[in-house]
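Thread title: Can someone regenerate the structure for this chain?

I was given the following input by a collaborator and told the matching structure tokens would be attached. They weren't. Posting the sequence so someone can regenerate them.
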Amino acid sequence: MRTSAIIITRARGRQGSRPKVNERELKKAINLYKSEQYSVSEIVETTGIGRATIYRYLKQE
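Best answer:
Regenerated them for you:
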């Protein structure tokens, strides 16, 4: 069933996946986190990058 939804979505000219993370905002969020001057909630509000995304990229480093 999921496969047919993907086919229909692509037929409409869409890719059917989540948008990519804005690299500039992500770097800003990581730098703010590393500065230890802002809470994660403040960083999320400022950059628009989700909490889980911030932690995921920090774990990769």
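The CA atoms of residues 6 and 47 lie 31 Å apart.
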